[in-house]
Amino acid sequence: MAGRIKIRAQKKGELTEVKALMRHPMETGMRKDQAGESIPAHFITEVAVLHGDHTVMQAHWGAAVSANPFLGVRFQGGQAGDAVRVVWTDNQGGTGEGETTIR
Amino acid sequence: MRRQSDDAMTLYRFVMMIPRWWLLLMVVPALADEGIFDQYRDLMGDDNPAIFVIEEGEEFWVQSQGPSAATLEACDLGLGTGVTRGAYAQFPRYFADTDRVMDIETRLLYCMETLQGRDREVIAAKPYSLRGDFGTELEALVTWLAAESEGMIIAPEQAHPKERAMYAMGEEIFFYRAGPHDFSCATCHEQSNKRIRLQQLPNLTEHTEVAEAYGSWPAYRMSQGLVRTMGWRLQDCFRQQRWPGLIFGSEVSIALQTYMAVNAAGGVMTAPGLKR
Amino acid sequence: MTRVDSNGISRRAWLRWSVILSAAAALPGRVWSAVIRPEAAFDATALDQALMALGETPTRHEGVIFTTPDIAENGAVVPIRVEVDQTVLPNVSKVSVLVEMNPNPLAAVFDIAPGTEVYIETRVKVAQTGNLYAVVESDGQLFMASRETKVTLGGCGG
After folding, report:
1. Would you list which residues of chain B are within 8 Å, Cβ to Cβ, of chain A?
2. Whole-angstrom distance, CA of residue C142 vs CA of residue C53
3. What pTM was computed for the model?
4. Cα dihedral C110→C111→C112→C117 (10° resolution)
5. Second-level CATH architecture of B46-275
6. Interface contact C157-B12, CB threshold 8 A
7. Which of B43, B182, B242, C158 is 20 to 30 A from A77 (CA-CA)?
8. pLDDT by residue (tens digit) across C44-70?
9. Which CATH number covers residue A63?
């Protein structure tokens, strides 16, 4: 369940467009649950998009990124069939990764 | 440091202080510019986090659970043992083995009890997520089953006398005024082109509108980060009307779902949807 | 118990991240000084504090194309897009997104590799109606665009 990523990667002319949706609560640490207890912060802190071995983009995120976060990027080049990966790590040491091929 | 929960609490207290009948004044004609959120939705695109919950639901379906260590794969949802494709679109419906009309959630509870040996009271005590949860089993199962009916015609069964009686009860409840505000469902949902704040209110007595509304639940509720079911939505309506709490799996809940589903019959299932 | 720093990030998370990235980016060429998370900027509780931590006061630049909805259906999920017209603003290496009225205005920092378009789409939480900022770094200088997004409360208040 945790760590899942849905990725689509498509050629758009010269560019490759990547759209990724990640399964993560992105909890800010500022909310309280129904019992009044603080819900601990739990959010993706670093995420990277890779085309083969090349890191196309890397991001640092705070808890203000929406739950079940979405990320869209574009890069030059890329061929149909190339591997595109998205990896993340969160503030509790959790990780996620997903992979797709460019269409 | 100001916290978001403090702001929410302040707002809640403020709202609770407003003389309640004034809330009716919030039901206003819809804005001439119908597409106030079109730009927002365009920018959002198609990626709906419900897609994860669909997968999670399917996993629960094939997971061995309970004292019987059985999966739900032998569950009969009205189209035969284990048939999930198209089943959701035909709910609520009468089941001979229980001699009653059931909605998808009560039917799932029945299968958990009879196939898996699980305690229905435990599941019924917390069917829906609370703040801080990441989704319940029931929510995930309903999401997956709705996706198994995506694109299909809404066609709740009305052949059996008990099914028709359930529709009649649902209709009566729909127009029944109660609670401290003397609200009925019809107060907000009997007219077209009305809204509360910026939220359009579907006219649940008009076929096209109720079909669109009913067919888009369960839905990922962005403000909650969770997929919510039709049963949950009814519970929340009762809360907002200041009615007594709607009991999970009750006949009242099944009756109202039947009323909406039959009014929506012929429309298309688009769930899981994406809502505020 | 895992030691956790002021931002709530565990030591384990740092180590794991370094391992992932060094495996992924063991290349000649660009050195990822960008790996360092701008902690002070994320911790800042006011917009100008966050901007100072990122570098300096950015100047507005029409090469920063920032798209946000005029009005959002809810504040938990607000889609945004940042693009840069590279013909008027080249060499952009970093994009930051800030939400002025959030308890911590800095939401995200994107490090863009050469060859990657400056094109980012994501969704952020916006606590209340206010300004959003897209700040880009080009050759060490900061440029920005801003837009106001209205946030509505839904239906009966929930």
Report:
1. 3-5, 45, 47, 49, 51-52, 55-56, 59, 130-132, 134, 222, 225
2. 12
3. 0.87
4. 10
5. Orthogonal Bundle (1.10)
6. yes
7. B43
8. 999 999 999 999 899 999 999 999 999
9. 2.60.40.10
